[in-house]
Amino acid sequence: MKTSIALFAAALASTASAHTIFQELYVNGVSAGHTTGIRVPTYDGPISDVTSNDIICNGGINPYRTPLPTDIITVPAGATVTTEWHHTLAGADATDSDDPISAGHLGPVMVYLAKVDSALTTTVTGLKWFKIYEDGLDSSGVWAVTRLVNNKGKVNIPIPSCIPSGNYLLRAELIALHGASSYPGAQFYMECAQINVTGGGSASPATVSFPGAYAGSDPGITINIYWPVVTSYTIPGPRPFTC
Ligand SMILES: *[C@@H]1O[C@H](CO)[C@@H](O)[C@H](O)[C@H]1NC(C)=O
Ligand SMILES: [Cu+2]
């Protein structure tokens, strides 16, 4: 119990502005370039309202850096992409003890895709999203965010081989649960990358909407992760699509 309270206090103390931004995508280990093809905001703050359009691709209360990217990253179906997160847009160059994110920002990591006519579309409402990746709390009590921190901000994501070719937005998301014991409190971090899937198949995954996929009452969104220390965790949203 003493340890839990100490951890809780330490987590609170380190949460002031220790946020994060998904800012680099690798395809089969090759970087597309720092911030290339990713709609990065100018501020790394969280979204807390799951009913807001800002939950889609950010860029609302944290305005996008402009001009918006015009690159579309080619991703062969079946490839492994790596999403890389950092505390600020300085990226891996920052000498920052809260990079890639404060170690106290514990929670899950997820990735969704939405098929779009053009990955350059600026209309992100009304899209149909399917989850392709999720990582929450493992059986040893280690959170996805801790794995991300240990891997210097990188998370490897297999792209399903059977999804149709074409343009998509790739929405990478991290939820920090240190203040999530009441709603709003969970901190949602997400950015959207512009990709073109090649060599795909003909699957039609079930989809969800943003906003809509999450509710403030979800057990993975309003949760006290410190006391009692959680041993199992229900990741928000649907289970990931597999071919
Ligand atoms: C996507 O890839 C296909 C296949 O290589 C190509 O024909 C198409 O022009 C690409 N589209 C975009 C927007 O990059
Ligand atoms: Cu933060």
TrEMBL record:
Q: Please name the GO terms of the biological process aspect recorded for this protein, alphabetically.
A: cellulose catabolic process
Q: Does the keyword Secreted apply?
A: yes
Sorted alphabetically, which keywords does the UniProt record give? Carbohydrate metabolism, Cellulose degradation, Copper, Disulfide bond, Hydrolase, Polysaccharide degradation, Secreted, Signal
UniProt xrefs under Pfam families: AA9
Q: Name one GO cellular component term.
A: extracellular region
Q: Which cofactor does it need?
A: Cu(2+)
What is the top-level taxon of the source organism?
Answer: Eukaryota
The Gene Ontology terms for molecular function here are: cellulase activity; cellulose binding
Q: What Enzyme Commission number(s) apply to this enzyme?
A: 1.14.99.56
From which residue to which does the signal peptide run? 1-18
Cite the Gene3D superfamilies for this sequence: 2.70.50.70
Answer yes or no on keyword Electron transport.
no
Limits of the Auxiliary Activity family 9 catalytic domain: 19-233
Q: What class of enzyme is it?
A: oxidoreductase
Report the locations given in the UniProt record: Secreted
**What reaction does this enzyme carry out catalytically?**
[(1->4)-beta-D-glucosyl]n+m + reduced acceptor + O2 = 4-dehydro-beta-D-glucosyl-[(1->4)-beta-D-glucosyl]n-1 + [(1->4)-beta-D-glucosyl]m + acceptor + H2O
> What is the protein's known function?
Lytic polysaccharide monooxygenase (LMPO) that depolymerizes crystalline and amorphous polysaccharides via the oxidation of scissile alpha- or beta-(1-4)-glycosidic bonds, yielding C1 and/or C4 oxidation products. Catalysis by LPMOs requires the reduction of the active-site copper from Cu(II) to Cu(I) by a reducing agent and H(2)O(2) or O(2) as a cosubstrate.
Protein family per UniProt: Belongs to the polysaccharide monooxygenase AA9 family.
Query: What does the domain comment read?
Result: Has a modular structure: an endo-beta-1,4-glucanase catalytic module at the N-terminus, a linker rich in serines and threonines, and a C-terminal carbohydrate-binding module (CBM).
Record-given protein name: AA9 family lytic polysaccharide monooxygenase
- Provenance organism: Morchella conica CCBAS932
